Amino acid sequence: MGRVTMLGMVNSEYEVRAAQAGEYDQFAGLFAAAMMFESSPGELDRELFEPERALVAVDGGQFVGTAKAMTRDLSVPGAVVPAAHVTAVGVRATHRRRGILSNLMSRQLREVPEALAVLWASEPGIYGRFGYGSAAWGVSYEADLRNIKPYPAPSDAGRLEELPAEDAAAQLAPMLQGLQGKRPGVSGRSELEWRRRLEDKPDHRGGKTARHILVHRDEAGALDGYALWRGKMNWAPGGPANEVSVEEFVALHPTAYHALWHHLLTLDLAGKLEYGHGALDEPLQQLVANPMALTRRLGESLWVRITDVGRAMAQRRYATNVDVVIDVTDDLIKANNGRYRLTGDTDQATCAPTEAAPDVSLSVRELSAAYLGGRPLSEFAATGGVTENTVGALNKLTTALYWPVAPVSIEIF
Ligand SMILES: CC(C)(COP(=O)(O)OP(=O)(O)OC[C@H]1O[C@@H](n2cnc3c(N)ncnc32)[C@H](O)[C@@H]1OP(=O)(O)O)[C@@H](O)C(=O)NCCC(=O)NCCS
Fold it and tell me: Which is the closest atom of ligand 1 to the Cα of 119?
């Protein structure tokens, strides 16, 4: 139970509990209202709902807060691990700033069975207080197709084709798994999640075309990359200036990467291309003679919250050999507090409680931010969030935690 003071006058009790199976529409309605969009849940949304992993705050029989966790996996440095995918976080406008989110978050984080929780934040100021760290940068691209000058596609380009949506899920799924093996930050999808991802309701297209499912086959005919994209006709005074929106891009080999992007960057009548999920080390600009025509904007991608330090740190791999004692503080999950000896390399890792003197001290937020290998720990030492107790230990730990391939989430969930 929590207590809210409404309009500064009326006290009312609210209850926080797990949702029930039949409550999806009410749950979705509250979240949609908080985000200011029209709720229109479909059958697949209802099927995907895990009521026992969804929390609601209820005041006088009315939902006033929601937060749910989805059971999915996530690629992390050197492994693919279970991660609670947190979403649908919302508080009714009449009940804001009275602690409902704090109540939902602290209960959710204490209860998740996974060693990690991850989310996309609507605003970067919300989740740090709960121990989440911004763990991956995302690059949004806007390409001026009239001036970008793509280099020619490779001559051994294999071939491109479009798949009908009905057949696509089973064929795309192995490629997404392949990407998880290469890049941290990528969420896995069940068969049901794939069906939901590929749903293409006409009233959700925002004036754009139906989704194109473009795939690349290598010379042997095996699929090794895909792009999901839509177009939008735009006839400007100066001539055709159609817009290309790339929703998702996966390529497992350089040839597929180049051939798919070359196709997208050279579509007839197109003047602009947008893609919102590039990684910090996205090689796209290497494919064009004029990268100045490729505007890049950096934003927060995935946020990570370690809920079980020992388990989480042993689940990932490390870029170099590491053997350090870390002292972790966690205001919310008391069991995380303490010293751990972390040992590991590219093949294995252990992280167990110890009484030894700490080499590096930090809070769970900084450790979570560095977890996917995309934020150097030294960055947080520079502002006092991480303290080096043994000279040289911070560099060693920073290098081991960092990863040669930058993490990025390619889907907002
Ligand atoms: C963001 C939201 C969930 C916050 O819920 P809430 O119940 O008002 O939050 P709380 O009262 O528990 O606030 C806890 C703390 O977070 C702060 N906070 C809340 N929302 C914040 C925001 N958008 N930006 C920065 N800080 C915020 C509060 O000021 C409070 O700080 P304090 O502990 O120093 O006093 C709610 O405003 C909302 O539904 N917003 C619209 C939908 C949305 O953005 N959801 C998140 C999707 S990722």
Answer: 48
Which CATH code is given to the segment(s) 139-300? Answer: 3.40.630.30
Residue 408's contacts (CB-CB under 8 Å, 6 or more residues apart) are 136, 137, 138, 139, 183, 185, 186, 277, 278, 279, 280, 282, 301, 302, 374
Distance 123 CA to ligand 1 centre (A): 9
Sequential pLDDT tens for the chain (413 residues): 565 444 333 346 899 999 999 999 999 999 999 999 999 999 999 999 999 999 999 999 999 999 999 999 999 999 999 999 999 999 999 999 999 999 999 999 999 999 999 999 999 999 999 999 999 999 999 999 999 999 999 887 799 999 999 989 999 999 999 999 999 999 999 999 999 999 999 999 999 999 999 999 999 999 999 999 999 999 999 999 999 999 999 999 999 999 999 999 999 999 999 999 999 999 999 999 999 999 999 999 999 999 999 999 999 999 999 999 999 999 999 999 999 999 999 999 999 999 999 999 999 999 999 999 999 999 999 999 999 999 999 999 999 999 999 999 999 99
Number of continuous H segments (helices) and E segments (strands) in the chain: 10, 22
Q: Where are the domains of the chain?
A: 2-114, 139-300, 306-401
Q: Is the CB of 334 under 6 A from ligand 1?
A: no
User: What are 57's strand-pairing partners?
Assistant: 16, 65
State which fold the 306-401 domain adopts: Nonspecific Lipid-transfer Protein; Chain A (3.30.1050)
Decide: pTM greater than 0.85: yes
Which homologous superfamily does the CATH classification assign to the domain defined by 2-114? Answer: Gcn5-related N-acetyltransferase (GNAT) (3.40.630.30)
Q: Is the CB of 72 under 6 A from ligand 1?
A: no
**Cβ 137 vs Cβ 298: under 8 Å:** yes
